[in-house]
Amino acid sequence: MSAFIEKLKQMDDKDSHKRRALGRGLDALIPKRPETAPLGDGERIENIPVDQISPSRFQPRYVFNEESIKELASSIREKGVIQPIIVARKREGFELVAGERRWRAVKSLGLAQIPAIVKVVRDSDALELALIENIQRENLNPIEEASAYDRLMREHALTQESLSQRVGKNRSSIANFLRLLKLPDEIKDDIADGRLTMGHAKAILGLESDDERYRLRDQILSSGLNVRDVEERSRAASPKKHKATPAKDVFMEDVRVRLERRLGSKVDIKQRAKGGQIIISYSDLDDFNRVIEAITKE
């Protein structure tokens, strides 16, 4: 199983900048290639001056990977912008709704225009669209994703269950992301930068005090402890808190989260005394084909 986790992590790292759609999500908003015909409600794909577009106020991503932007720019230089961005018209110019990486890449190439769908978007919807765009296409780091979920729930009065339906994630996954926000800032920075995984974080959260959490975090970073090792140390430090939780739960949850992020679909793992099931959800035939492609992709 540990070999499987390592392979999954390698696949995650390799494909982190090539994230595919999570369910249908933005498919209803963005066509697969530019068209000249109206999209509905008077919307069209237009070539918008790049310098008239401002970044979204609701962008959940804090950090943009410059190397990833360069790779995207290279692809755009060769093939053009295949997928239009989404913008909202403002009194002066336009505001991005989705597609900031494409916009940044086009700016870096010095191009004057970029294909865009001009939509009428309420502020109440802009954060949700920006979050879905990043989850589906660009893979937010866990802390950015957690912060975006928290903001969506607060500003839209959503429950974890209703949020899970809107963004295509398991409710338990959303709960685990939100718990990350309870960690000290330094540990959250480690998670955002990839020094600690979600599995590490969940085990650290099992400890009672920040002092204990810092000590375990230092052990992980200095000794390269895997998730199972960290869970065992967390249990030893807080045996009462972990009394009713099987040791394998955090390990299997880490597997489930990695699969969910890798496949871009809801994933459930049902364990039995012997064996079990991995259940992958899809929304329609197109989404089924997308999942199969993600599974079989080398």
Question: Can you characterise this structure?
Answer:
The chain is built from 13 helices and seven strands. With 298 residues, the protein is α/β, with parallel strands linked by helices. The chain has two domains: 2-13 and 142-296, Arc Repressor Mutant, subunit A, CATH 1.10.10.2830; 22-122, Conserved hypothetical protein from pyrococcus furiosus pfu- 392566-001, ParB domain. The chain has a five-stranded mixed β-sheet with strand order 1-5-3-4-2, with helices on both faces. Helix 6 (160-167) packs across helix 7 (171-179) and helix 11 (227-237) packs antiparallel against helix 12 (247-263). The longest helix is centred in the last third of the chain and has 17 residues, at 247-263.
At the first level of CATH, the class of the largest domain is Mainly Alpha
**Beta strands, count:** 7
Q: Report how far the terminal alpha carbons are from each other.
A: 19 Å
Order of helices and strands: HEEHEEHEHHHHHHHHHEEH
Share of residues in strands: 5-15%
CATH topology of the largest domain: Arc Repressor Mutant, subunit A
Coarse structural class: alpha/beta
Strand arrangement in the largest pleated sheet:
1-5-3-4-2
Q: Gyration radius, to the nearest Å? A: 21 Å
Number of helices: 13
Which range best describes the helical content: under 10%, 10-25%, 25-40%, 40-55%, 55-70% or over 70%?
40-55%
Indicate the low-confidence ranges by residue numbers: 14-38
Give the overall form.
globular
Mean pLDDT: 75
From the coordinates shown, what is the CATH architecture of the largest domain?
Orthogonal Bundle
How many structural domains?
2
